[in-house]
């Protein structure tokens, strides 16, 4: 087995066509490991010092903020990842900056408007939707930070578009690092039990502002007076981004409906248990995200140059790398998941182990499928992917409504596993039918 892994890894690192993605992924992966570690430490601190209930409150507020943020983003965080490399290849850095700046202003305006609406609806959301009126202040406070979260997400993707590997890697750990730092500092200075909420929101604000400054500096260093600028209107940007908005919204709902519906039907502590299971299970996906962070711009570039064979070659190689690194993580979580939950977070968290196993299975299917969603968006098949996600969304909501009231976190985990596996398999089937090949890698294949 060890010899096989060494041989597979040697084949990957000796491949010139894949070397850029491999090098970038190594950086992104290293920093994602650090970020995941910081995130886990923060969760352990909250679980030990504040309890499962506060973990559940943070998870509900974070899921609600993400939902509103996705609406405010208008799909531009995915579109900018496609547009920046496209303009760099076809036109110039100044042209890419023109698109970035226009997108930035569009997003700021949309996020301010969305934040105001969210703020005005904070009390009804806390009282009528979640049946937790004591959280109305925190929903209102969360609304204030919508603009900062959108800045964070947009600029993180824009850095990916510029292929600033080390900068992107650093930006991955900033929200986790700021969160842990503020969690510890505020815990020493402030006596309120809601310190984890304040720390999380302030971390988003610091990351969003710093990301904006990084992008301004990075673009201005690349631009030249003679650069050719191909201007895009806001309408043209939205024509590309809005289908991606719907897809992003559906991906979010599929991934976070479990937390939101648990918040509606179950106590905060149950949400906390499930949130920890999700956090551990998604450790199997950080390699996927690390590789995709470098592969996305490369997909866009190869598709723009009409190099279809190389495009699928790189996609398959990416999936192969993901498989051989995530498999040990999958096995480790299944074998050691229960003691990890009990020792790190507390004995009561061991009840989340069955949910963890179910979630990990779904993450494994996601990993071996490759960059299905990103690939479809980068090659202009966002509408097809949107349709696949829409059907998955309907199934996800129905299953959650049927299973969560009766089975709690286990029903939420089963729904998440079925949904995640379902849309990946459906997308692979579409690729196979249209292109005769897929982005997936299975160990029985070459």
User: DSSP strand (E) fraction?
Assistant: under 5%
Q: Helical segment tally?
A: 18
How many beta-strand runs?
A: 0
General shape: globular
Q: Low-confidence runs (pLDDT<50, min 5 residues)?
A: none
Radius of gyration: 21 Å
Helix and strand element order:
HHHHHHHHHHHHHHHHHH
Average of the residue pLDDT scores: 84
Alpha-carbon distance between the two ends: 16 Å
Give the proportion of residues in helices.
over 70%
List the helices and strands and how they pair.
Layout: H1 2-13, H2 19-49, H3 52-73, H4 76-90, H5 93-120, H6 122-129, H7 136-144, H8 146-161, H9 165-189, H10 195-222, H11 234-265, H12 268-281, H13 286-304, H14 308-345, H15 353-368, H16 372-378, H17 382-407, H18 409-435
Helix pairs in contact: 2-3, 2-9, 2-13, 3-5, 3-7, 3-8, 3-11, 3-12, 4-5, 4-8, 4-11, 4-13, 5-7, 5-8, 6-7, 8-9, 8-10, 9-10, 11-12, 11-17, 11-18, 12-15, 13-14, 14-15, 15-18, 16-17, 17-18
Explain how this protein is built.
- This protein is an all-alpha fold and 446 residues long.
- The chain has one domain.
- Helices cover 84% and strands 0% of the residues.
- The chain has helices at 2-13, 19-49, 52-73, 76-90, 93-120, 122-129, 136-144, 146-161, 165-189, 195-222, 234-265, 268-281, 286-304, 308-345, 353-368, 372-378, 382-407, 409-435.
- Helix 2 (19-49) packs parallel to helix 9 (165-189), helix 4 packs parallel to helix 8 (146-161) and helix 16 runs antiparallel to helix 17 (382-407).
- The radius of gyration is 21 Å and the shape is globular.
């Amino acid at each position: 087995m060890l010899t096989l892994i060494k041989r597979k890894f040697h084949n990957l690192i000796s491949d010139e066509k894949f070397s850029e993605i491999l090098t970038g992924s190594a950086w992104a992966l290293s920093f994602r490991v650090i970020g995941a570690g910081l995130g886990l430490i923060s969760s352990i601190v909250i679980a030990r010092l504040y309890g499962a209930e506060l973990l559940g409150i943070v998870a509900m507020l974070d899921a609600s903020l993400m939902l509103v943020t996705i609406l405010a983003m208008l799909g531009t965080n995915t579109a900018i990842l496609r547009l920046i490399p496209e303009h760099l290849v076809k036109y110039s850095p100044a042209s890419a900056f023109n698109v970035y700046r226009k997108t930035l202003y569009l997003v700021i305006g949309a996020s301010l408007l969305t934040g105001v609406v969210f703020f005005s609806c904070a009390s009804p959301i806390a009282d009528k939707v979640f049946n937790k009126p004591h959280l109305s202040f925190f929903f209102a406070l969360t609304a204030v930070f919508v603009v900062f979260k959108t800045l964070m997400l947009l600029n993180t993707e824009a850095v990916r578009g510029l292929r600033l590997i080390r900068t992107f890697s650093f930006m991955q750990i900033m929200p986790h690092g700021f969160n842990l730092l503020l969690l510890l500092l505020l815990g020493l200075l402030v006596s309120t039990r809601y310190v984890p909420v304040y720390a999380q929101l302030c971390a988003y604000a610091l990351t969003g502002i710093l990301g904006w400054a990084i992008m301004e500096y990075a673009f201005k260093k690349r631009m030249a007076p003679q650069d050719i600028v191909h201007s895009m209107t806001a309408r043209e940007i939205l024509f590309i981004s809005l289908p991606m908005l719907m897809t992003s919204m559906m991906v979010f709902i599929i991934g976070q409906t479990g937390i939101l519906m648990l918040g509606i039907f179950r106590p905060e502590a149950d949400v906390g248990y499930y949130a920890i299971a999700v956090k551990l299970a998604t450790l199997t996906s950080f390699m996927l995200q690390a590789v995709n962070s470098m592969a996305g711009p490369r997909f866009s570039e190869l598709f723009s140059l009409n190099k279809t064979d190389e495009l699928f070659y790189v996609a398959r190689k990416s999936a192969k790398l993901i498989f051989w690194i995530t498999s040990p993580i999958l096995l480790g979580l299944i074998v050691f998941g229960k003691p990890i939950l009990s020792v790190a977070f507390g004995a009561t968290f061991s009840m989340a182990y069955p949910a963890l196993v179910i979630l990990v299975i779904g993450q494994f299917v996601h990993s071996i499928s490759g960059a299905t969603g990103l690939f479809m968006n980068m090659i202009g098949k966002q509408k097809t992917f949107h349709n696949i996600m829409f059907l998955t969304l309907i199934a996800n909501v129905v299953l959650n409504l049927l299973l969560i009231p009766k089975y709690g976190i286990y029903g939420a985990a089963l729904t998440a596993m079925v949904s995640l596996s379902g849309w990946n398999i459906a997308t692979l089937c579409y690729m196979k039918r249209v292109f005769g090949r897929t982005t997936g890698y299975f160990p029985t294949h070459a």
